[in-house]
Write the structure tokens for this entry.
Amino acid sequence: MKLKALLLALSVISVLAFAQEKVKYSKEQIKKMETYLFNEGFTIPSPKKISTIIMKDGTVNKGYCSKVDSKKGQIYEIAIKDSATKKQMTFNAENVSEMYIFPSNVEKIAKVGKYFGNIRNFGTKKLTKNTNGENIHFVNQTVSLKNKKDDKEFLMQLINPEFSDIISVYYDPRAKETGGFSIGGSPQLGGGVIKSYYVKKGDKIMWLHKDDFEDNYDFLFGDNAEFMKKYPKKSVEWDYFSFLVNEYTEMTNG
């Protein structure tokens, strides 16, 4: 038992040592790490495409989404017109397990305008994420808004569906962005980095702000020693978050 305890202690110490090492990345590596891999966050549904609402009891409803009511950015009620019967139906978000809706063209156009309004986007984001015709996935989660309110159920947009099996990241509709500057009405230089998300790993879901990233780094990634050695927290930036979640997932899954 003593030998096992000693080996465990040495393992923990080695991981912590890796976390303290500074790694210098090349320009090519930094460019790759700055690439934004999450999906864009959308809040306005298209009334012209069929949405799917799955209730907690397993009932599936399909129809044209005519209204999504939100409070402080979070959805509390959805109304659809049944695609077959044309009957108007309203659902309380707390009774919904999952929802798939399509973003409205108005919001997509606004996102495209925002994309071209910041030079930084050209090298870090794909324009197609603002314009694709795929549906967006909302999942019922019990969460404390900004880690301050009582836990409550909300429908939250999953923005990393392709690599969410270990760490799920949800859009924060009230998130702010880092500031930049522009000269004479030209596209903005710098800034435009989203400052917060809701993040779930295991049974824990939290509001993660860029200022708290380093404090939560070990919780998010510390169980993978290889990852911690390659991307120690003193060597990375909040700007790399989507890349780090994807890389951690790939390295953990092998």
